[in-house]
Amino acid sequence: MNVFTRNFICADFGVGTLEAPIPAPLLRKSFTLEKAPENASLLITGIGFYRLFINGLEITRGHLSPYVTDPGLIVAFDKYDIKPYLTEGENVMGVILGAGFRGNFVGGYRTSLAMGDALLGLVCDIDGEIFEADEDFRVHSSPIVMNDLRVGEHYDARLERQTEGWTLPGFDDSSWSKAKRADTPRGEQRVCTAPPIKVRYILSPVKIWREGDGFVYDFGQNGAGLLHLHCSLPEGRRISVEFAEYLWDGRFYNETITGGPRTADYPFGSQNYIYDSKGGEQHYKTSFTYQGFRYAKVYGITEEEATPELFTFEVMSSEMRERGGFRCSDDILNAVQRMTREATHSNMFHIPTDCPHREKNGWTADAAISAVHMLLNVEADDVFNEWMHSVAASIAPSGAMPGCVPAPPGMFYDAWNGPGWDAVLVELPYRLLELRDDPRSARSAADAMFRYIAYTVARRDELGLVHIGLHDWMPPHDTVKAPRELTDTVICFDIARKAALIYDKLGMKERSDFCLGIARSYRNAVREHLIDLDTCIAAGNCETSQAIAICLGIFDECEIPKAAAALVRCVEEVDFHVDCGCLGMRFIFRALSEGGYTDIAYRMIVNPTAPSYADMVFRGETTLAEDFNAKGERINSRNHHFLGDVSGWFIDTVCGIRVNPQMETSLRGAVKTGKFSHCDGASRVDIIPDLPTALSYAEAFHETPYGTVKVRLERVREDWIRMNVTADSGVHGRILPPKGYLFDGCGESPLISGEFDAFKH
After folding, report:
1. What is the model's pTM?
2. Nearest-5° Cα angle at 161, 155 to 164
3. CA angle, 204 then 249 then 211, to 5°
4. Which is deepest, 186, 308, 622, 747, by most CB within 10 Å?
5. Is-cis flag, bond preceding 611, omega within 30?
6. How far apart are CA 523 and CA 540, in angstroms?
7. What is the largest CA-CA distance in the chain?
8. Are strands 324-328 and 697-704 parallel, antiparallel or unpaired?
9. Domains (ranges, CATH) in the chain?
10. Is 731 helix (H, G, I), strand (E, B) or coil?
11. What is the spatial distance between Cα 216 and Cα 251, in angstroms, rounded to a whole number?
12. Cα-flanking dihedrals φ and ψ of residue 100, to 5°?
């Protein structure tokens, strides 16, 4: 196991509670250099988080550094070149430590290190001279009186006077205490490769009004990041803020996002934002947490002070470039695309999370379901690859996986998990191979995948079926229609066949053959016990059951028309509304398109009444909600990404940008033949559009590892669609006309840039 250092220190402030929290510690080390160094590097970790200063300048890599892990499994370090910041003479290294997962007041979210002091570990190399964290570091309390990733943060600016200049040479720290040695965390030490958390854009309030004894600031966009206070208030004035996503009957409403502990000092249940003024001009934003919100209700200010300049909203996420996009003639679809993009960024804070306000947790199903639309839209590769180290390390000796990573010790292994959640272990490596030719996650998860598949085999019942996990989570009105034995077993089949392909790519033939055999047994069990082969109806006879069975290869190709027709009947029975939970929503539109019913999929999306995406748009959502309940009904969260595969469908089905289509063909064929066929990888892109009749135009782009492909479809008249294609030279493939159309009598063209006219035949 990789180890950079066994020397860890803490402030020895003891264990805090929400009633009596302990402050975030300041740690300071002064050292003298005879000359400016030629080389100087630093490896540093904070458990939980840190902020790093050299000679008065903050150089922290990003917000909430180093990374979110369970340090009993993974200890994430950041690496810095600190040469530019060091000088001849006295130099000072200063660190503020935040609680992170180690000191959470919400006990169910703590990781394997018991609640207690934050830890610092580092290795500093200056021209070959090395020092590590030791008792020479001096410690003092900071103005951060309380900090907790979920509960919030309390800052008393008056305490700054005690430590003013503490990061600069010449500061007198003789009254400070010595740091104390701490136990070395058990986890593997590794340099974090995930991108840092950075500001994406800054919002000012669009509206402010008094409500009760506070003032509500509306920033016009649901998001995640930092509320930044800019004020000139008298000393001792306390500003407190609570946050919400939603107005109920025009009033501030946050009951669905505040489920944590409450005290007299910290009354809001989550995301407490408390600031005690020092007087004069001041600026403040939290150091060791972040906020998810659209609305901020501010207490402690007067009518005159409640100005638009008092606050800005720094909207943040892990740093990810835009990689794809979609636009069309329907404003509803355009709004859904924007909502998906914003929800994706709001839930990428080091790890893919489930909501930025209440839980901030790495629920595994969310990432498995969202992998395709995220990779098509944004540069999520490094986020996924880093997180997969934690996912693979979380596998229990039995092979069981937790439903949340990182997770508290022993939690979520026998509840709040199951194949629909555990699929992330294989789904992310598979999609990174498919869309990016990136084998990093496949390699890091290879052993864990095999142990997990063996675990599911041991959990089969006498019919060969699996039913050990959560259902089709969050369907409309919480009515689950797809039987658990169907969703679990079909997903176990998909896990096994994708693992077989991954092992084939990695040259592990014996493992590949074993997993293919397991996949066949799962498929046979489903077809024998859960499919009516005469009617091609899956158990449950509902949208989720049919969609999953169609998309994941339970039906033979000749059975797809009948299975898709049965799916359409399910949709018609609910008047073209969504009737799936999160598992079904990953497949519903793709299954309809595969069966030739893209217009039905479009009709579901734009259905003006709930449950539908259009209802979200019409009621003013700016990010995707967690569920499809209607206005006036309880909605658990209004900033989730796991209903976002519709955006992937826009790009790869409506506009037809199919990256590495041979891989899916190889996957489907191998279950029957026992062999995986050749595929060119992500340099192969086929354009196979399926434009809904109601759209007059649609356009999309995607940047592959080898070049960008852009497609614009324009309906010139009812029987004529014009396709404009731009393809960089590094990609190859073919262009097919929309279904039912031909290019001047031919069926396809090589993938080249140009204009193609397709006519109905």
Report:
1. 0.97
2. 100
3. 55
4. 622
5. yes
6. 17
7. 87
8. antiparallel
9. 8-194 (2.60.120.260), 199-318 (2.60.120.260), 324-632+645-673 (1.50.10.10)
10. coil
11. 9
12. 60, -145
Backbone dihedral angles phi then psi of residue 481, each to the nearest 5 degrees: -105, -30
Structure tokens at 269: 């249940």
Q: How many residues does the chain have?
A: 761
Q: Return the ∠ at Cα 361 (arms to 376 and 346), rounded to 5°.
A: 45
Six-digit token pair at 686?
A: 């086929």
Phi, psi of 483 (to 5 degrees): -60, 140
Amino acid at 159: L
Q: Are 148 and 106 in contact (CB under 8 A)?
A: yes
| pLDDT tens string 90-138 | 999 999 999 987 667 765 555 544 456 899 999 999 999 999 999 999 9
Q: Which whole-number Å values give the CA distances from 281 to 298, 303, 655, in the listed order?
A: 18, 19, 52
By C-alpha distance, which of 687, 682, 715, 716 is closest to 700? 687
Q: Which amino acid is at 596?
A: G
Rounded to whole angstroms, the Cα distance separating 340 from 347 reads 11
Nearest of 635, 606, 605 to residue 621 by alpha carbon:
635
Cα 665 to Cα 642: distance, rounded to the nearest angstrom: 26
Please report how the helices 381-393 and 424-436 are oriented relative to each other, as an axis angle in degrees rounded to 10: 150
SS3 content of the chain, % helix, strand, coil (to 5): 30, 30, 45
Instruction: Indicate the range of 104-108, 542-546, 550-554, 722-726 predicted with least confidence.
Output: 104-108
